[in-house]
Amino acid sequence: MLKLLSIFCLLSSCCHGYSSCRSCVVPVVCCPVEQLPTITEASPSSLIAFPFDESFPMTCEAKGNPKPEFWWTKNGEEFDPYQDPRLIKEKNSGTFVIPNTGNLTEYQGTYRCYASNKLGTAITEEVEFVVPHVPKFPKEKIDPIEVEEGQPVILECNPPKGIPPLQIYWMTIGLQHIEQDDRVSIGLNGDLFFSNALEKDSHRDYCCFAAFPKIRTIVQKNAMSVIVKSKNSNNDSSSGPGHANSIMEREPSLLMPSGVKSETQLVKGDELLLECIAEGFPTPMIEWLKIDHRLPDRVTIENHGKLLSIDQVDEDDKGKYMCKATNIHGMAVHYFDVSVEEPPQWVSEPESQLSMIGSDVLINCSATGTPQPTIQWMVNGKPIEEVPASNRKEFDDKIVLHKANSTDSAVYQCEASNRHGTLLANANIMIMNLPPMILTEEGLEYSAVEGKVIVMHCKVFSSPPSAVTWNKEDSTGSLEGLRFTVHQNGSLEIYNVEKEDMGQYTCYTKNTEGTSAITALLDVKDPTKIFQAPEDLQVLIGTTAQLSCLAVYDNSFSGDFEIVWEKDDMEIALNHTENSGYFIEDGILQIVNVSHRDQGMYKCVASTPMDQDTASALLMVLDIPHAPENLLLSEHKGRSVKLKWIPGEDHNSSTTEFIIEYEESQWEPGTWRELQRVPGNHGSAVLKLYGHVNYRFRVSGVNTVGRGRPSEPTERYKTPPAAPDKNPENIKIEGHLPHEMDINWEPLSPIEHNGPGLEYKVSYKRQHVEEDWQEHLVKRHSFVVKDTPTFVPYEIRIQARNHHGWGPEPKVVTGYSGEDFPSAAPDDVAVEVMNNSLVKVSWMRVHKDKLHGHLGGYRISWWRLRSLLDSKKTHGDKHTLTFPGDRNHAMVPGLTPFSEYSLIIMTFNRRGNGPGSHAVNFKTPEGVPERTPVFRVTDVQKHTVTLTWAPPLEANGVLTGYLLEYQLINNTEEVGVLQTVDISNPDTTMWVLQNLEAISRYKFYLRPCTRVGCGPRVSKESTTTPEARKSHRLRSFNTRQSSAMTDTPITALLNIRSSVCDNFSYVAYMNNRKHITSMSIFNSSKTFHVIEGLELGTVYTVRLMTNNWVDNTSIFEYVIRTRAKVSLASIHGGISTQGWFIGLMCVAALLTLMVLIACFVNRNKGGKYSVKEKEDLHPDLESQGIHDDTFCEYSDNDEKPLKGSQHSLSGQIKAEGSGDSLVDYGDEDIQFNEDGSFIGEYAGRKEKKGSMEVKGTTNQSTA
């Protein structure tokens, strides 16, 4: 039946004409099948014409094929809306509209709509159109009501009829409400009841007001006058003694309702209202009961006990109720018999049917209600008695059509009614034979989401009903399984759709009249799934919160996918303004400057046109606690008071404690100080206070976020004065002078005085010597005891007092009088060498009698006398270490190896240091050298590299040589084998590595060595050239000093070939130890340059600077070291004092003088050639085969350095020309920094650097 009903609805909505198919929910193929009319929309059963509405539609819509025609009846007679031009009609519709022209009375009545075509007629329920009148009280003259005091009074209202609800008010002309109580009340009928009148009830302006909210109207009845005559006419006062007794007392009687019993009928769902109003004196009290039952829990007693109400009554509320009015004289009762009835309800509503010709048709219609509804049948809107049929039989609740034929097709109406209402149902009965007609469109494409449900339609119209089966193109037979269901309407429902369900499906239909089929395509989409869901978050207020939401979805929805955020089920609107705190990008929600209003549940909705996924997270905003409220002081007990408060909101972080602060008005007004703290689960605290203080308090909460704002302060509370509660603390006993003792203490704070007149009593005595205390009263917080022995123990105590008494008994503390300097030094000082930089020092402790004070500890001072490489002793910088406490040994670190030191020890106390011990000398053993200060690659060729360096500044022993290592490091992950060269000559400062690969990068390592081992290494990298290139190399660089036994400065002579001399303008040399750089102008007209004033035993870097000097560019660089002064005495143990040695030295001096004269003569004849001869005897292994004129030469003077012009330059020298000509000379850069030292590498191309120790000749070796 349900299947046929849905088919009727579909056909009637689709088959008005062939062009209306697109209006169907499911695309269908239109058909020419005729259909009975069906009502689709109608007005409610009651329509009230409220005066403020503009119009009132009488709705009637229907469908059918052929298209239905409409007509109306009013009050049972035919009514044609088209005959009244005032009515508004709608085309192709049965609906007409009654405009509100102000006079609607003529339209009042009961309407019914009929929709008919040639097959039958459908009808609507009757619609009552009510036109309310403006309610008015009748104009009447109301006589005054006179009653004796104590008698009942009823003022009748009799409100006019109108649209409910009705509201009654009793007021005076001045709009003052009549007060209601046990004695005075308003009844349900609107009357005003007085159980007993009193003289104060006399008024001339009692008015009844009736309000009708639906029509926004209030009407007033004429004023009524009540005159209450007093029983005591001689006494004008109603309150005098015995007045109450003068009123006639009586037992209760009921004013409303009358009689002893009444019946009340209600419709289920209505509100039950039972009222009892009684008169009598004293005023009766009302009590309600339900006979044989307890009053329902839903009962409400109102109007001072006079009204019982039950909302939404049902069958359980029926029964007998009783009200009982009682006073001291008796009682009165009334019984209510309450019955609950129901309007008609369908038990079996008639259904539309499609049946075959010749079949039996059964139409059921039954209803229930109280009283039982009566059933009336109609055919096409006419009583069934007026439409006879031979094959039809009627019963009370059914109709049977025997062997029905097409002429029995009609609209059958069933109407069920009782006194509470009427129900009407239409049933379309179609009798025909028809082969299957599939109304669903062919080739529909369906899309489903994997894991969801899809319904594919196959709407069929046929008679008799046809069987529907579904097949899939790649399967045999019909679809089977729990996931597939074919419904009665032909639709195929697939549960938990899978990817394998994609494909083409066929719907087959068949009955006795024929068959039909359609196909449909199913596409299965990937589901939308959130894979990174937002997580619950707790953030601090004012910070930024970030909630992430990332999802995957089907690729076909790339343009239609979106992520929407909701807060508390409301979508977050983005206005992209500065004031907006929400920012969404790529599914990530950022909440900037989080506030309390941002707290809540956030939902991420990732959706496509077909599905969606959601994920939620709770955002909690953490903040400091809100200020406590309602601070209250109680339990005042002098210097104790109880403080109570109500904690403020903790903002999602539990309050851990409360801080109570106070402010007093005498010492620090306006300053709040902490008084005490209490746990966070407390709401009160007992405060212990100081005396003579005017307090007020405030409280603030603390949670994990921080401390909250303080509360509002309490009122002032002043404590009475009292003696001090405590004595001074932190007593300090010191002696700045040997015969004094200074006593200091921390004074009581002003609030701790507890009263005026605070002072301190200082008591002291020598410990174990004196019995009596010496006492002094002071107001300050210090005291000095004079003429004390040096450093002896005392007992001291300090007690506070004020005008109200002494403080508690003070504690005794022990201290010492003033200290003096220690008078003895440690004895038996011994030094044990642990290693080359650490020694252990031990000594004998100083006796305590010599300390003259508290032992502070010991101090060790030491200084370096000399290096063991140097015989001359000097007094180096003194170093001191302090070792606190009582001890007899210590470790002294950080010593220089291979050195001689001197050391002393002293003790100290608070007064100062004692005398030092006898100096102890010791020597440190040899160590490894420091790193080489200069390491350079000075010449790079195709297969050779020249390395130069300077000796370490501190050899820390006897230098034995160098360890040179190198390896290939081309731009690969692997490096070459590490090659080692052991250089055993400690004077070597240059080395040539041969047989290297061309165009290859090498790394070089150099470590200086002593007998102990090798020091830290330095490294350089360089790349060999593709071919050999010319090299500018210095031939020799010699220094000479007049005597190795003196401190005479060394002078160096630089000899340069004229072929390259024009390339230089400046000579720069730097003291590598002091980092002091000097420069002088080179005279290019000469072939030599003199460098004077070099220090002994010092390393220098010498550079020859070009004419066009830019950025410290140089071509030649050498590192030299001058010879240290040698003392023969240190070697031979004082041989210079022997006579034979002095004579030998005189002979040597004479021979030297003769040699110098000969050299001088030889030089005047052309000494330059002698240098050339020396070069021939000692050829430069690196320069063989290169013409001598391409080099600058160095030679030393035989006797004295040649005096030449030398000019000192200060500051930077600016280049006079371009430095472009230097580009081809080098690839490294060395620069001067602000103090003149060399930093960095060369800028521009230059000769690779070499280093050498200057000892008259250049020592160089070749590897």
TrEMBL record:
Pfam families: Bravo_FIGEY, fn3, I-set, Ig_3. The keyword DNA repair does not apply. It catalyses: O-phospho-L-tyrosyl-[protein] + H2O = L-tyrosyl-[protein] + phosphate. It is a single-pass type I membrane protein. GO terms for molecular function: cell-cell adhesion mediator activity; protein tyrosine phosphatase activity. Belongs to the protein-tyrosine phosphatase family. Receptor class 2A subfamily. GO terms for cellular component: axon; plasma membrane. Residues 1-17 form the signal peptide. The gene is LOC112220359. The keyword Transmembrane applies. Its EC number is 3.1.3.48. Residues 627-722, 727-820, 825-927, 929-1028 form the Fibronectin type-III domain. PANTHER family: NEURAL CELL ADHESION MOLECULE L1-LIKE PROTEIN ISOFORM X1 (PTHR44170:SF45), PROTEIN SIDEKICK (PTHR44170). May interact with L1CAM. May interact with ITGB1/ITGA1 heterodimer and ITGB1/ITGA2 heterodimer as well as with ANK3. The chain crosses the membrane at residues 1140-1161. InterPro entries: FN3_dom, FN3_sf, Ig-like_dom, Ig-like_dom_sf, Ig-like_fold, Ig_I-set, Ig_sub, Ig_sub2. Its main location: membrane. Residues 709-718, 1243-1252 have a biased composition (Basic and acidic residues). Residues 37-130, 132-225, 252-339, 344-430, 435-519, 527-616 form the Ig-like domain. It is found in: Cell membrane; Secreted, Extracellular space, Extracellular matrix. Residues 706-730, 1200-1228, 1243-1263 are annotated as: Disordered. Keywords: Cell adhesion, Cell membrane, Disulfide bond, Extracellular matrix, Glycoprotein, Hydrolase, Immunoglobulin domain, Membrane, Protein phosphatase, Receptor, Repeat, Secreted, Signal, Transmembrane, Transmembrane helix. GO terms for biological process: axon guidance; brain development. This is Neural cell adhesion molecule L1-like protein.
